[in-house]
Structure formats: structure tokens, C-alpha cells
Write a structure and sequence with these properties.
Elements: H1 3-16, E1 25-29, H2 35-38, E2 41-47, E3 65-71, E4 74-80, H3 91-103, E5 108-117, E6 127-135, H4 163-176, E7 180-187, H5 196-204, E8 209-211, H6 215-224, E9 227-237, H7 248-272
Parallel strand pairs: 1-4, 1-5, 5-9, 6-7, 7-8
Antiparallel strand pairs: 2-3, 3-4, 5-8, 6-9
Bound molecules: hypoxanthine (HPA).
């Protein structure tokens, strides 16, 4: 058995010890977006430290736990918090939650994040349903020998985000009166925020939002054959010609304030998908 496969199975066994329901949806909750987990019925939470292969996380805005239960009657597994490359975590660790959700039987992955807004026509606190992504992290979870049980050698990326889930999320946003754009998410490793020249470049190559997560998880999810929905909260404006210093507390506050809008959409997508 490959090391990765063994790692996934050990984590899956630890989760199965807490309940035998098959989750249909896996949800990764980013910075400030933990609120969805509070809506879970019949929930059981497991701290990351109690799952083999899951290092503890101490980041602001991240609880660092897995919660099992149901939302709108649908069995789900949520990860409150994620691993980032800038913390020094390997791509194997960063993508373990995705592969764990798949191993437990999930068919859909929902990823969320707080992101910097590159699109000059959007506002702080707006949502972006992710339509496509650009990997500028310089890392990739699929490098190395391919384990065919996890997915194909050369996964296709012509539609990494499921077009049906994307349309459904947009339809729900319109119905609920929530402003949700669709756009392209670009990922860098961080941890420094970007320079003006970098923002200018990112905008030129077609990105609407920039962040330090999500892309490795989505690559692993596509590899695993999961249908993906991604939602970003625009927490700060990254306009190269009108840039002030970013304030991390403010970024987290905007993410927290916009959280309920995202939760409303994700909840309804889970119910209807
Ligand atoms: N860059 C800039 N602004 C941000 C980011 C980022 O990675 N994440 C949230 N706001």
C-alpha cells in the first residue's frame, strides 16, 4: 500500500469510530467561516489532533476540528480549518481532508475561503463563486508516482468546479438576494501579502481573487473525481493603484460578517444537490 493510501485509511478508521454514516458532502471551512458547522444537526466534533495524520492548527479564525452530522437532512463532514503551505505543511497534509472525505464516500466537496479582491468592480464582503483557478503556488499534490486508486495520472482540468453546482449556487444567491459573482481564484503560497506589481500581474492574467489556499485541495478533489463547489469571500480590495496596507483583523472581521451569506448558499446547495 502506498504511504498516502495508508495515511488516508488510518484517518478514515479514526472517523468511522465516531459514526458509521456515509457523508455525501465534504465541506472545508476557511478563515472566519466556521458558522456553517453550528447549523449541523446531530453533530459529533473531533479535534484534528485526535485524527492520525492531522497536525494541530493554531491559526486565528480556524477551530481545527472535524464535525460529522447532517445539514438539511444530508449527511456531511466538515473541516473547520485547513492546512496551508505557508505554515510549512506538505501538500500531502494539505490535501488529506479531501482524500479522507472521498475515502469516507463523499461525492461533493465544498471549499470556502477568504480572498483578496482583484476585480475593481466588486466590493468588500461580496461573495465569489469560483468558476476556475490559477495555480501560482509552485506546488502540486499530484507530483510523484501516481496511485491509480486515488485517481488518474493526468486529470483533466477543463472544468475543475462543477458547472451544475456553480449554476445552482448562483440561482440560490439570486433567490436569496445575495450578491455573488463568478470568477477566477488565483493561489499563492503566502504568507506575505502581494506587492502592487504582483496584483497588477494577477489581474492581467485573468484572476478576480487571490488567496493562499484552496487550489491544492481542488486539484486533489478533481483527481479523486469529486464534484467541487468553491466560494470565496472578498475580504479586502487589492487594487494596485489604490493600495493601502492590509489589516488581518479586518480581513477576519469581513469574513465573519459575510459568513452567514455563504452559509445560506452552501446550506441550500447541499439540500438540493
Ligand atoms: N492576499 C491578499 N488579500 C487577501 C488574501 C491574500 O492572499 N487573503 C485574504 N485577503
Amino acid at each position: 500500500m502506498s504511504d498516502m493510501m495508508e495515511r488516508i485509511e488510518k484517518a478514515a478508521d479514526a472517523i468511522k469510530a465516531h459514526g458509521d454514516e456515509t457523508p455525501r458532502v465534504g465541506v472545508i471551512l476557511g478563515t472566519g467561516l466556521g458558522a456553517l458547522a453550528e447549523d449541523i444537526e446531530n453533530s459529533t466534533s473531533i479535534p484534528f489532533e485526535e485524527i492520525p495524520g492531522f497536525p494541530s492548527t493554531t491559526l486565528a479564525g480556524h477551530a481545527g476540528q472535524v464535525t460529522l452530522g447532517r445539514i438539511a437532512g444530508v449527511s456531511i463532514i466538515t473541516f473547520e480549518g485547513r492546512y496551508h503551505a505557508y505554515e510549512g505543511h506538505s501538500v500531502e497534509t494539505i490535501t488529506l481532508p479531501v482524500r479522507l472525505a472521498k475515502a469516507l464516500g463523499a461525492e461533493i466537496l465544498v471549499v470556502s475561503n477568504a480572498a483578496g479582491c482583484l476585480n475593481p468592480q466588486w466590493a468588500r464582503g461580496d461573495l465569489m463563486i469560483i468558476e476556475d483557478q490559477i495555480n501560482m503556488m509552485g506546488i502540486n499534490p499530484l507530483i510523484g508516482p501516481n496511485d491509480d486508486r486515488l485517481g488518474p495520472r493526468f486529470p483533466d482540468m477543463c472544468a475543475p468546479y462543477d458547472p451544475e453546482l456553480l449554476s445552482l449556487a448562483q440561482e440560490i444567491a439570486i433567490k436569496e438576494g445575495i450578491k455573488a459573482h463568478r470568477g477566477v481564484y488565483l493561489a499563492v503560497t503566502g504568507p506575505n501579502l502581494e506587492t502592487r506589481a504582483e496584483y497588477r500581474f494577477m489581474r492581467m492574467i485573468g484572476a478576480d481573487a487571490v488567496g493562499m489556499s484552496t487550489v491544492p485541495e481542488v486539484i486533489a478533489a478533481v483527481h479523486a473525481g469529486l464534484r467541487v463547489l468553491g466560494v470565496s469571500i472578498m475580504t479586502d480590495l487589492c487594487l494596485p493603484d489604490a493600495l493601502g496596507p492590509a489589516n488581518i483583523e479586518e480581513i477576519i472581521a469581513v469574513a465573519n460578517a459575510a459568513g452567514p451569506k455563504m452559509t445560506a448558499i452552501v446550506r441550500e446547495v447541499i439540500r438540493r444537490a
